[in-house]
Design a protein that fits this description.
512 residues; Rossmann fold; Alpha-Beta Plaits; 4 domains; seven-stranded mixed sheet; globular
């Protein structure tokens, strides 16, 4: 999705940031990071692509800029009382490192689902850590209660002028480099980095376009641009946890409206492909949020050639257990792997006929289980060189009278079906299918089952951890009640996010 912004010609809200950026204290802790050409990305897109390497900061993220600038500007009384912040990662490290340098008491509230590597990193800066809640919102609410109780200063991760100004030094460094760019792509969570960069560049170099890039499952800025005001998303995806924010900041949106040209949304698969791109050009494993801007740049580059483009590589605090998932989904994000559901006759020679159509194409997976005596459904993963190759394959399947469906972008197929084994339920008239998320904490499954009670029977269950704070869940439930809204209402009361998928084509062909 692309949302164009009719940005203002008058810089009323953003004008003050020029002075604030110039007076920022960031270089007491931050480095002037290099801008490097991404050779492989340049060849792939037909443009000259460069990366602003914020993954090379001392905390492997740009967050030390804004955090330090904000804390440095606290008055002596505020510094003596100490600070508090809520974060699941990079902001926590930025605040903790700033407090260590300035010798200020620091308390960080982190979700209980936070990976141990990030907790250790924060404690490494001598900060006190409290684990509370399953997600950022719950940690934030607890932090604000403690803030009032202990009379500390709360350090917002993005919605603060000094934080915005600290992040804005990235934009100043880009122009100070003397390199000329047609467009700059910036990841968006709450909007601090985008507001800061755009405030500087839009007022200092009006010919360079600024693009904000969001993940489509947490696109709070796109929602705000469409509504004409800030809105709070009802739910957000957290795989790209560094940009998983439900509502864009107030100060941030004021600047963005004046200074940003367009907002682009990208999928998780496209983000994973961006992680692979950054690795191939830098040998650095970016965290998902750190590759969001690259994903947006690639989406934009489809419609332009021979331009000078820059993406912010914003962080490299990657949880190691995400690597396999990122590698797998990057193929889908690049559209170099397709997932097909193909119907074949249940008789001798059918497999051979099908495989002859694939020829020497690389098969990445082949899933089959006999379902009845006449027809079988086969789930096939296949690598392709380009869309022309895929078109040719589909034409060959059609000419040989094989019925097929493209399930490449089907969430149930990608998150669950490819990893499930077994047959179909004999009687499925009363089975309903739901897709949701469980927090990665001990007892989450037990809590769900207890909340479900004994009114409904679970007929199918598949859980897969994606290396993030939440795992994907697929659950089938036998529902004999006359009111079909009763079960859905009960699921919502459990506190977990679920959506019904009973009519999903992948479910109907393989599980029902």
């Amino acid at each position: 999705m692309r949302i164009k912004n009719n940005k203002s010609k008058h810089f009323t809200k953003s004008k003050k940031y020029i002075s604030l950026i110039e007076k920022s204290f960031v270089y007491e802790v931050a480095s002037v990071t290099p801008i490097t050409e991404a050779i492989n990305l340049s060849k792939k897109t037909g443009n000259k692509v460069c990366l602003k390497r914020e993954d090379l900061q001392p905390i492997f993220s740009f967050k030390n800029r804004g955090s330090y600038n904000k804390i440095k500007h606290l008055n002596n009384t505020e510094k003596e009382k100490g600070v508090i912040a809520a974060s699941a990662g990079n902001h926590a490290q930025g605040v903790a490192s700033a407090c260590q340098k300035l010798k200020i008491k620091c308390l960080i509230v982190m979700p209980e689902t936070t990976p141990e590597i990030k907790i250790k990193a924060v404690k490494g800066f001598k900060a006190s850590v409290i684990l509370h809640g399953d997600n950022y919102d719950q940690a934030l609410a607890h932090a604000k209660k403690l803030c009032k109780k202990e009379n500390r200063t709360f350090i917002d991760p993005f919605d603060d002028p000094y934080t915005i100004a600290g992040q804005g030094t990235v934009g100043k460094e880009i122009l100070d480099s003397g390199m000329d760019f047609d467009a700059i792509f910036v990841p968006v969570g709450g909007g601090g980095l985008l507001a800061g960069i755009s405030a500087w560049i839009s007022q200092k170099n009006k010919k360079t376009k600024i693009f904000g890039v969001e993940v489509d499952d947490s696109a709070c800025l796109a929602a705000a641009m469409q509504a004409g005001k800030r809105v709070r998303l009802k739910s957000i995806g957290i795989f790209a946890d560094g940009v998983a924010v439900a509502q864009v900041g107030k100060h941030n949106l004021e600047v963005i409206k004046e200074c940003v040209d367009e907002v682009i949304t990208v999928s998780i698969d496209e983000v994973c492909a961006g992680v692979k791109d950054i690795f191939e050009d830098t040998r650095v494993l970016s965290e998902p949020a750190g590759a969001v801007a690259v994903a947006g740049l690639k989406k934009y580059a489809v419609r332009t050639k021979k331009k000078n483009l820059l993406a912010i590589s914003s962080g490299a605090n990657l949880n190691f257990d995400r690597i396999s998932y990122i590698a797998e989904r990057s193929e889908l994000g690049e559209e170099s792997e397709k997932i097909l559901s193909i119907q074949i006759p249940e008789k001798s020679g059918s497999f051979l006929r099908l495989c002859k159509i694939f020829g020497k194409s690389q098969i990445t997976e082949f899933n089959y289980r006999m379902s009845d005596s006449t027809i079988a459904q086969v789930l096939v993963g296949i690598k392709i060189k380009d869309l022309k190759t895929f078109t040719g394959l589909k034409e060959r399947l059609t000419s040989k009278k094989f019925n097929f469906k493209d399930l490449t972008k089907n969430d149930i197929s990608n998150d669950h079906l490819r990893y499930m084994v077994g047959g179909r339920k004999i009687s499925t008239n009363n089975e309903r299918l739901f897709r949701g998320e469980f927090p990665e904490r001990p007892g989450a499954l037990l809590d769900f089952l207890e909340s479900l009670g004994n009114k409904w029977n679970i007929s199918l269950f598949h859980y897969r951890n994606l290396g993030s704070a939440f795992g994907k869940v697929l659950v089938g439930i036998e529902d004999n009640s006359a009111n079909n809204k009763k079960l859905l209402k009960h699921l919502h009361k459990t506190g977990y996010n679920f959506s019904e998928e009973t009519n999903n084509i992948a479910y109907k062909q393989y599980l029902k």
